[in-house]
Amino acid sequence: MEPALEINKLRKEYKDFKLNDISLHLPSGYIMGLIGPNGAGKTTLIKLILNMTQRKSGEIKVFGLDNLTHETDIKSRIGFVHEEPHYYGYLKVKEIRSLFSRFYTNWNNDLFFSLCGEFSLPLNKRIAALSRGTKMKLSLALALSHDADFLLMDEPTTGLDPVFRRDLLRKFSEVIQNENKTVLFSTHITSDLERTADYITYIQKGEILFSCTKDHLFETWGLVKGGNEVLNRETHRFFKGVQRGPYSFKALTADKEKVRRAFSGKNILIDKPSLDDIMFLLSKGEINA
Amino acid sequence: MLKHIRRELIFNQTQLYIFAGYMIVFWIWIDWQDIPFRMSLLFLSFVLPLFCAASIQAREEKFKAWTLNCSLPTNRKTLVLARLITSWSLIFAAFVFGLLFSALFQENPAFLSQFLEPKSILIFLLLSSLFLAFLLPFVIRFGISGVIIGLVALQVLGVITLLLAQTSSNKDNILRSFLHSIINTVKFFLDHDPTPGFLLLLFFSAAAVNIFTFKFSQFLFARRDF
Amino acid sequence: MEYAVEIENLRKEFKGFTLKDVSFRIPKGYVMGLIGPNGAGKTTLIKMIMNLIRKNSGRIFVFGKDHIQHEAEIKSQIGFVYDVPCFYEDLKLKKLASAIAPFYPKWNQELFLKLMNEFELPLGKKFKKLSHGMKMKFSLCLALSHDADLILMDEPTSGLDPVFRQELLAQLSQIMLDEEKTVLFSTHITSDLERIADYITFINNGEILFSSTLDDILGKWGIIKAGKDLLEKKDIPGIMRSQKTEYGIEILTSNIKKAQTILPPDSITEKASLEDIMYFMSKGDKHA
Amino acid sequence: MLKLCWKDFYITRLFLIPVPFFFVILLNTFVFSGFLFFTAGILLTFAMVISIPLIEDKYRTEQIMLSLPVTKQSIVLSRYVSSFFITGIGMILYFVSGSLYSSIFKDKIVSLTSVVSLEGGAVFLFTSLLLTVLFLPLHFKLGITKALLVFPAFMAVFSAVVWLGIESTSLNPRTLLNPPLFIFLLFLLFSSLTLLSIFLSIKAYKLKEL
């Protein structure tokens, strides 16, 4: 089966920000979470996949098809959900359905209506009157009804309450299990990622620092704690980010076995990092200056 | 209260530049078309309140800034009062600007002298207060889109009355008499000789209208949820 | 115990939603988190304290004074951060600040400038050019620069990345060192609450379900996973909600210790995180 | 691409009744001079044409449209097609209001025959199409709100250049006016301008940061 998404050496330049040589691989049938600080390029990456903005160089393949030459075929198999779904506010829910159904060849009406039932979407209500959560459910229903094999979502869970998020994420994993679909979603809420994502990609200042499965991440990466005396010039090599307190330090390493061996004598503690720690140390910790 | 006016002026400063631009174009148009004095007085007393009430409110509505204004340490009464005072200060600034402009560029001096007569100033004051009394509460209640729809509706109504007045051949139909009655009252005010009693009457009626505007707008503004 | 904000059976009717007799108190010098599903009334509540939305009935006292009679005086001691930015977007930051500053008697310009460069906010930049996070920082700067005793925040952390959120919460806890300040903030991200809030109030479609300290909730509340028949046989002390799952039944109880004493050995009990509590309180079926 | 034109029609089908009514009524307020009637007709048609991009901008639906299986190129082309279609409707309404005027007022105020005639109609069509063709590249480059601010200035410069062109070449407009040559020249000029404008719009829209 072709990988759902393959990006190699993607470059894009803005005045004050550069996306340089992004390479990413997402096999189909999995959920990938995209995290990173505000303005790191998550939204830009999603827009480039949908060819909404012009890239400088690089290649993006979706289901093995290049997204410049086969743009319409790819887009008919992608379900896009925006952070703040904007539709024509004055249209009713059933009218947006008839608008969308005209564009997709494999539109499935009864699936849409069954999803509306399941999500309790009011068919005759104007979209502007819907709450944020309901709009999110609507865009999900629209995406699933044209049986998109690849769900692309830009911060779908922002501003939604935890209960709603839990249902939404369970819906994602349901979608994955029975129909072998792929999901790529960017988010700021790390607990969502830890609960549902199979792959996690961390992007910062336009560069991908790591992109691997969640288990691999938590197996190999380690949060190292110890006294400051352990640190010296040479030890910085092992760490991706160090936060030095008055007496002790907290550091992040991508290979805890190596650190365990290198620091075998000294009293250091290595345990499983949470995504918050990883993000904090990667962006705020001083790298081996 | 001064800090309120300063706040309104700072928040709407871009609007003030556009306002100045309009005023210059307006006075050039008056001078170029040499519109008679009375007509220009009428236009002025309609255009200025419309601009003040509508444009400041439109900006507040566009940026949903009333949550900011109402969260500041003040109550809604002072907010409405500040809006009224700012509108009036803008109207007088434009009026004075008009005088200066016509003094410099207007050919016939009679135009300027007519303007400076107390009677015409007070009539302008009364007319502007009447228009403001209609516009400020209307804008607070229905918002800027309400005003636009209202103006378009007035336009359409005007055309329909024009059409009806034309087609119904007999001269004394109700529409035409209604239009004439309005024109006569305005003429009556303009022609009336400037006795002190008349001037006082004008002044106090203008003051009464403004108090009504303040009370009514404050009543409407207090009832709104943001 | 002195209270910064006291709300007594507040009532407000909208077309599709009513805030029914809400009463709770925010102790002075503490941080209270306000959680609840979307559309539960969090924003309405905060706006009613600021008198942006008029109440149908009920009373609100801020610093012991009625919030309508002493509206101006109270508001000069309140800092506000709304989730939807309400500033004139085409103005520069320093212009916005200079228009607002005279309204606050205790406005401190040096503190404002210090905060602005600590948050790396350029004074000459227009508001609309700021990113979502920076807009939030700017409203926080304004709220903190006039020595406000009560800070109301409506979902300040939504849409911010985790690192930035930690910074914001660190800034907040630094403010809390001074005993006088009180903070009420609504959020959807329960991990932020667990990190900084002292009190938690849970509101669900217009009703306060509970309002107590964080340790009390995390300490006393718990989830019992047991066989289907447990519910019929015994009544569980402090039972709040229960939910049938394919393995059996899950019960949320507000008194886990007492419940444990009467449980059969095969049942499992766990600590309840805020998210679980929210999940059960809105989805589970009611008891008592 | 035709689906997108259908979309434009679908989202504005609610206004199909009120808009023509207002068009005819408002146009009749400018009856006291033929030239004013003509320009009012042009401006109202132009307003109808830009109403769809304004709706798209107000509801910020650009991203959702691009997530549909369409390319940026087809969006630009469909915008041109629906704009030309709407201009056609505008012309019909222009003729309707002209005939409505003459039937009610029976040319009491001023006779509009000079403007509401076959050749007047051709000039009306040409000018409003020209207006659209000039506006759309600006719209795709700057977005509708900025384009509307810049457009009046742009039009002033454009008409000045055209005016100077006609003056300097001392071409006597009479000779230009014998119909077959004039029509052919007009058509040639217009189609090349449209192709250039389409090319510019596509290029601009591709580079546009959404």
Which helices and strands, and how do they pair?
The complex is a heterotetramer of chains A (289), B (226), C (288) and D (210).
Chain A: E1 5-13, E2 18-26, E3 31-35, H1 42-49, E4 57-62, E5 65-66, H2 71-76, E6 78-81, H3 93-103, H4 109-119, H5 132-145, E7 150-154, H6 162-179, E8 182-186, H7 190-196, E9 199-204, E10 207-213, H8 214-220, E11 222-227, E12 239-244, E13 248-253, H9 256-262, E14 268-271, H10 275-284
Parallel strand pairs in A: 3-8, 3-9, 6-7, 7-8
Antiparallel strand pairs in A: 1-2, 1-4, 4-5, 9-10, 11-13, 11-14, 12-13
Helix pairs in contact in A: 4-5
Chain B: H1 2-11, H2 13-32, H3 37-62, H4 66-71, H5 76-105, H6 109-116, H7 118-167, H8 174-191, H9 196-222
Chain C: E1 3-13, E2 18-27, E3 31-35, H1 42-49, E4 57-62, E5 65-66, H2 71-75, E6 78-81, H3 93-100, H4 109-118, H5 132-144, E7 150-154, H6 162-176, E8 182-186, H7 190-196, E9 199-204, E10 207-213, H8 214-220, E11 222-226, H9 230-233, E12 239-244, E13 249-253, H10 256-261, E14 268-271, H11 274-283, E15 285-286
Parallel strand pairs in C: 3-8, 3-9, 6-7, 7-8
Antiparallel strand pairs in C: 1-2, 1-4, 4-5, 9-10, 11-13, 11-14, 12-13, 12-15
Helix pairs in contact in C: 4-5
Primary descriptors:
heterotetramer; A: 289 residues; alpha/beta; Rossmann fold; Alpha-Beta Plaits; 2 domains; six-stranded mixed sheet; four-stranded antiparallel sheet; 14 strands; elongated; D: 210 residues; mainly alpha; 9 helices; 80% helix
Overall spatial form of chain A: elongated
What composes the largest sheet of chain A? 6 strands, mixed
What is the terminal separation of chain C in angstroms? Answer: 31 Å
SS-derived structural category of chain C: alpha/beta
The parts of chain C where pLDDT drops under 50 for at least 5 residues are none
Structure report:
The complex is a heterotetramer of chains A (289), B (226), C (288) and D (210). Chain A is an alpha/beta fold. Chain A folds into two domains: 5-217, 3-Layer(aba) Sandwich (Rossmann fold); 221-287, Alpha-Beta Plaits. Chain A is built from ten helices and 14 strands. Chain A has helices spanning 42-49, 71-76, 93-103, 109-119, 132-145, 162-179, 190-196, 214-220, 256-262, 275-284, and strands at 5-13, 18-26, 31-35, 57-62, 65-66, 78-81, 150-154, 182-186, 199-204, 207-213, 222-227, 239-244, 248-253, 268-271. Chain A has a six-stranded mixed beta sheet with strand order 6-7-8-3-9-10, with helices on both faces. Chain A has a four-stranded antiparallel beta sheet with strand order 2-1-4-5, covered by helices on one side. In chain A, a hairpin with a 2-residue loop joins strand 4 and strand 5. The longest helix of chain A has 18 residues, at 162-179. Chain B is mainly α. Chain B has one domain. Chain B has helices at 2-11, 13-32, 37-62, 66-71, 76-105, 109-116, 118-167, 174-191, 196-222. The longest helix of chain B is centred in the middle third of the chain and has 50 residues, at 118-167. Chain B is globular, with a radius of gyration of 19 Å. Chain C has two domains: 3-214, Rossmann fold (3-Layer(aba) Sandwich), CATH 3.40.50.300; 221-286. Chain C contains eleven helices and 15 strands. In chain C, the strands form three sheets. Chain C has a six-stranded mixed beta sheet with strand order 6-7-8-3-9-10, with helices on both faces. Chain C has a five-stranded antiparallel beta sheet with strand order 14-11-13-12-15. In chain C, a hairpin with a 4-residue loop joins strand 1 and strand 2. In chain C, helix 4 packs antiparallel against helix 5. The two termini of chain C are 31 Å apart. The relative contact order of chain C is 0.14. Chain D is mostly helical and 210 residues long. Chain D has helices at 2-11, 18-27, 34-58, 62-67, 72-105, 118-142, 144-168, 173-176, 179-207. In chain D, helix 5 runs antiparallel to helix 6, helix 6 crosses helix 7 and helix 6 (118-142) packs parallel to helix 9. Chain D is globular. The chains are: A alpha/beta (289), B mainly alpha (226), C alpha/beta (288), D mainly alpha (210). Chain A binds chain C through residues 35-40, 83, 131-133, 155, 158-166, 188-191, 275-276, 279-280, 283-284, and chain C through 35-40, 83, 131-133, 155, 158-166, 188-191, 274-275, 278-279, 282-283.
